[in-house]
């Protein structure tokens, strides 16, 4: 059931990007030097059409950003959408589905995968473990928090 709300619903990623564009959120340029990629979640990208906000934020803080291919609206699902990560009976199928995502991550050579969605965070962590990827998984808000410029520091 779709209902109309008296306000706009926006993702935290959109709020952070808007604050950055307006100068209310100051982020250190290329704070991170390790190779990093971004997981385009089905909710934010496929359903919400939000591709540019993550690129804006990652482009500021990541010195070595590597696009995953395919990406954007054509990205592979991590397998945990819709809460499937919470259903143990689907784990084997979910991880088999995530194999394509694991290979996409591996091809980037990234040491960090940043995600904006909590379902993706769990799904990518499982994917990294299952397929022996040599990388860490970080939630976008935490990743950005460490790069926030405080009191004029650079």
Describe, in plain words, how this protein is organized in 3D:
It is a single chain. This protein is mainly alpha-helical and 154 residues long. The protein has a domain at 39-145. It is built from 7 helices and 3 strands. It has helices at residues 12-21, 42-47, 52-61, 91-97, 99-108, 118-130, 140-145, and strands at residues 36-39, 112-115, 136-139. α1 (12-21) packs across α3 (52-61). The longest helix is centred in the last third of the chain and has 13 residues, at 118-130. The chain is globular. The model has no long low-confidence stretch (mean pLDDT 89).
Helix content estimate: 40-55%
Q: Which sequence of strands runs across the widest sheet?
A: 1-2-3
Cα shape: globular
Structural class: mainly alpha
Low-confidence stretches: none
Whole-number average pLDDT? Answer: 89
Radius of gyration: 16 Å
Main β-sheet description: 3 strands, parallel
Describe the secondary structure blueprint for this structure.
Layout: H1 12-21, E1 36-39, H2 42-47, H3 52-61, H4 91-97, H5 99-108, E2 112-115, H6 118-130, E3 136-139, H7 140-145
Parallel strand pairs: 1-2, 2-3
Helix pairs in contact: 1-3
Task: Provide the descriptors you would attach to this structure in a database record.
single chain, 154 residues, mainly alpha, 3-stranded parallel beta sheet, 3 strands
């Amino acid at each position: 059931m779709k209902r109309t709300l008296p306000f706009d619903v926006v993702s935290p990623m959109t709020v952070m990007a808007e604050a950055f564009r307006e100068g209310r959120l100051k982020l250190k340029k290329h704070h991170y030097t390790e190779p990093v990629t971004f997981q385009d979640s089905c909710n934010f990208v496929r359903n919400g059409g939000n591709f540019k906000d993550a690129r804006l934020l990652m482009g500021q803080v990541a010195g070595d950003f590597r696009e995953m291919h395919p990406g954007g609206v054509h990205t592979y699902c991590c397998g945990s959408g819709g809460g499937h990560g919470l259903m143990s009976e689907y784990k084997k199928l979910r991880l088999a589905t995530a194999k394509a995502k694991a290979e996409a991550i591996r091809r980037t050579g990234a040491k960090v995968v940043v995600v904006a969605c909590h379902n993706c965070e769990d799904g990518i962590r499982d994917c990294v473990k299952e397929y022996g990827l040599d990388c860490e998984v970080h939630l976008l808000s935490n990743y950005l928090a460490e790069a926030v410029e405080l009191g004029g520091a650079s």
